[in-house]
Every structure is written in C-alpha cells, then in structure tokens.
Fold this protein.
Amino acid sequence: MKFMGSKAQACARSRLTWATLMLIVLVLALPGSEPLFAWLFPALARPVYQQEPFVQLLWQHVALVALSSLVAVVVGSLGGLWVTRPAGRAFKPMVDALAAMGQTFPPVAVLAVAVPLVGFGELPALIALAMYGVLPVLRGTVAGLQAVPEPMQQAAHGLGMSPWQAFWQLEVPLALPVWLAGVRSSVIINIGTAAIASTVGAKTLGSPIIVGLSGFNTAYILQGALVLGLLAVVTDMAFERVAHRVAWQA
C-alpha cells in the first residue's frame, strides 16, 4: 500500500513538474512568438497580444482566483460545518438554497449588478467569483462530514473523547478527501470564470480573449486560451497530488 502510494505520488509529481515548466515556457515565449503567429494568421497586422505582459496577466489572474477562492473556501467550509452540527441542522435547507442561488446567477449578471455599486476593477470580479465558488465547497464539506459513520462517532464518545476531540481526530481526517474535492472543483471553476472579469476592467488572462473577440483577432483568443487552459491543468494536477497524499495518509 505504501509502495503504491509512493509510486502514485511520484507520477503525479513528474506530470505536475512538466506541466508547470510548459506553462512557464509558454508565458515567457509568447512575446517573441510573432513569426509563428504571423505565419498562422497572415491576415492579422498584430498577431501577438502585447498590451500587457503575459507574465503580469498570469500573476493578476492567479491572485484574483486565489483571493476569491479563499473567501469561498472559508464561507463554504464554515457554512458546511455549521449545518452539520446539532445547532445548525435545521438551517441546512436554507443554507443550501442560498448557496445554490449564488451559483445559479451567471457571473456576468453578478458583475452587472456589482459594478454600479463598487465600480470597475477587481472588486466586482472578486464578489462574483467568491459567490460562484461557495457551493462546491459547501457541498463537499457537508458530504464529507455526513459520511463519517455513526458507529465510529459513538465509539469516539465511548472512549471519552470530547466533541472537539472527536471532530479534529475523527471527523476532519475522514471528511478531508471529500472536502478537498469540493475545494478543487471550486478553484478550477474560478480559474475559467475569472476570464470574464476583464469585461469590467480587471486585468486577467481573459484580457487577450476579450480584446480578440472585440477586434476579430483569433490569435489573441488562442494565446489567452492556451495560457488559461494550461493554468487550469497545472492547478488540477496540483490538487490531484495533494489528494493522493491525503488519501494515502487516511
């Protein structure tokens, strides 16, 4: 079992390393790739997006996703924890409905409502992404905690564990893989959704895509989509590596 876990982690580590190197090389090479894109798209006068450096766009995109995902993880985890405790179980349907409403509204609609209230820039995008990312975390938290077998909880109490000790030493380790899957889904969704934040003035990897769509520049769209897609792949592989480690330790 230990050998298989180590082998799976080594494989995940290798794929993650190569994918990360590909992302770095792509971001650094794009500014000098004009001959390639000029050959692919000869009708375009400016085949390479140069309004902002791709390195800067990547950093700003990651920062926006990280901050919004942090808010979503905190809110979703606390909400899931609350509705699985005796004091909050009666409010579970209401919390589920509120979280579902947050994901039902399209991010574009949330941006349209938030911009008149807080202005253009990163803040309305942060609000929309945080709302959109709560539901997967909430569901993962609830599913993980509710999957802990009742006999094991009773055995923990029979051994003299306090509710706090039973929570940290029993419930959290058993619920962690399912909770992590919810966080993983939330972050990956936010990586793709954050691209539309460029429509309200936020600088993200969606900027070349939005500019390309408005200017009928297919090369810009392709460049932004390549970096955005590879970022999502790298992030998903990183979560896969963490999930292997959590599952092996569990």
Residues 29 and 208 are 16 Å apart (CA to CA). The chain has one domain: 2-249.
